[in-house]
Amino acid sequence: MQGEKIALLKKTLSYIVEQLKSTDRLSIISFDTVANDVLGGLKMMTTDKKVVVENKIQTHACLNAGGGTHIGSGLQMGINLLNQRKTKNPLTSLLLLTDGQDNQLCDYSDLIQRIPQGTMCITACLV
Questions:
Q1: Backbone φ, ψ for residue 69 (5° rounding)
Q2: Among 124, 100, 95, 104, which Cα is nearest to 33's?
Q3: Would you identify the CATH topology of the domain 4-125?
Q4: For the chain, what is the HEC assignment?
Q5: Residue 109 contacts by C-beta under 8 Å, 6 or more apart in sequence?
Q6: Which tens digit of pLDDT belongs to each residue from 61-100?
């Protein structure tokens, strides 16, 4: 993902952060050939934390084009974060934003089965 796609990704993430309330939690995981937990786990979206997150969105090197695209590494890390939460909310979402060009060509059906029950999953391809 490069250029316009990266700009669209950052704009989308910024919009999501703006919409969150102080009681909402967010984690951002970037992935190319490996996954990276950009925020270091789930963070409460207080006003101060939103400023920190917005800065990471705009400046973090992991949100720029890297190697290949291994969707499974990002998905795996996201699922692990959801499964390790101490507090489970009635509304949970897992957003996967990708250019849709997975260079691993894997079947992720077993991985998908590990998503916590009741989680709303959204995949958006930024083509």
A1: -125, 110
A2: 104
A3: Rossmann fold (3.40.50)
A4: CCCHHHHHHHHHHHHHHHHCCCCCEECCEEECCCEEECCCCCEECCHHHHHHHHHHHHHCHHHCCCCCCCHHHHHHHHHHHHHCCCCCCCCEEEEEEECCCCCCCCCCHHHHCCCCCCEEEEEEECC
A5: none
A6: 666 666 677 888 888 999 998 888 888 777 788 887 776 6
Q: Where are the domains of the chain?
A: 4-125
Quote the distance between the C-alpha of residue 7 and its chain's center: 16
Among candidate residues 53, 18, 55, 20, the one with its CA nearest the CA of residue 39: 53
- For 101-117, the pLDDT digits (tens) are 777 778 888 888 888 88
Beta bridge pairs of residue 93: 120
In degrees rounded to 5, what are phi and psi of residue 24?
A: -85, 150
Residue environment code for 50-88, b if the CB has 16+ CB neighbours within 10 A, otherwise e: beebeebbeebebbeebeebbbbbbbbbbbebbeeeeee
